[in-house]
Amino acid sequence: MSCDMPDRIAIKVGDRQTTALTYAADGLSRLAATLVLAHGAGANQSSRFMVDFATALADRGIDVLTFNFLYTEERRKVPDRTPLLEACYRAVIEAARSHAPFAGNKAFIGGKSMGGRMATHLAAADDAPAAALSGVVVLGYPLHPPGKSEQLRIEHLPRINVPVLIIQGERDPFGSPDELRPHFASLGEQATIHAVAGGDHSLAVRSVRLQPDHTTGRFPPPYRGVRAEQPDLPGIVITWMQQHL
Q1: Which of 1, 44, 101, 112 counts the most CB atoms within 10 A of its CB?
Q2: Is pLDDT at 242 greater than 50 in this prediction?
Q3: What single string gives the DSSP state of each residue in 186-219?
């Protein structure tokens, strides 16, 4: 397991600047692939989810670059408008390509929730082929606001022309896997939707109450009344990326 701390780099976005963190892949298992991973609307790149996910990927061979969108870098709570979010993401992709330790890597982009949606925007852009993207990884696609299933965020999806992996919780109030499937169907085999049984929008699996053994009256390990089997999400991402290298 790699124990290196991520390196911090500054990235220019027009006349402004944001911060990125680079997680170098473990040398013994390095796969020559970079994943640029964007945070969701409510937390920056230093959130536990982002740090843990990036670290897990790096420990298993993926170079990862996370970053702050400008609004979180500037400690504002309300996300920027889509064009500025996209401009920031584009600048970060270029920085990842020019980062010497990641030279020669295949480039993947993605993110959690809003960050993943912005990645799909870039993959659907007219210049997406010029960006030579190998694929997109979305950790919880926000198909619609909770309770507002008529407000769909789907207009750009048919224009995506690279492979896409969407990991979606079955209990996600922003859209279940079954809700997503018709809107990604136009991508055919390019789209993979992995449903997380019992998962919410953060892909956390709700604890399941266990019954004690009927003969001993004891709960099975870890000797508590609840257990949640968390899936190996980094492993799912790595397996999918290996298929598209």
Answers
A1: 112
A2: yes
A3: GGGGGEEEEEETTB-TT-PBPPEEPPPPTTT-PP
